[in-house]
Amino acid sequence: MGLWEACLCGTGGAALVEAAGLYLAIHRVGGYPWQENGQLRIGPYLLAVAIRLGLGCGLALLLTTTGAGTPLRAAVAGMASPVAVIALARRGSALPEVAGPTRAAGVGPESALPPAEWRSSEVARPGEEAGGDVL
After folding, report:
1. Whole-Å CA distances, 26 to 8, 38, 75, 105
2. DSSP state of 45
3. Contact call for residues 104 and 110 (beta carbons, < 8 A)
């Protein structure tokens, strides 16, 4: 797999996660999330998306240059890029641990987790009621 292909697959994987997050946010607030109080405005939101896409591309390129790259692995690397990069940086002691109330909200590996509604088994998906079976 070539480097351009790896970059496209990694960026595509990251874009899939961002699209799913935006889909859920639109349904949660009933409109554009950046128009709601307490949510990121459009500028910071677009910057966060651009950073996520860049991380996906970079991690997929790293994976490919080590000889372990396939299109699927590159896409998965793009999907997991924020969590993977933070974990790799901490393992290499590049980032110091911050404990207690000094940690900024929305920073760290827990901020890279999917929203709580993704992790809950009680969330109603399209075509079902909460707690029911998928049709």
Report:
1. 26, 14, 24, 22
2. H
3. no
- The tokens for 70 are 């396939």
Mean pLDDT calculated for residue range 8-15: 90
**Whether this model's pTM surpasses 0.85:** no
Burial of 80-107, coded b for 16+ CB within 10 Å and e otherwise, reads: bbbebbbeeeeeeeeeeeeeeeeeeeee
Residue 132: left (phi > 0), alpha (psi -120 to 50), or beta? beta
Longest Cα pair distance anywhere in the chain, in angstroms? 47
Q: In the predicted model, is pLDDT for residue 85 greater than 70?
A: yes
Residue with tokens 């639109």: 26
Helix (H) or strand (E) holding 8: helix 3-29
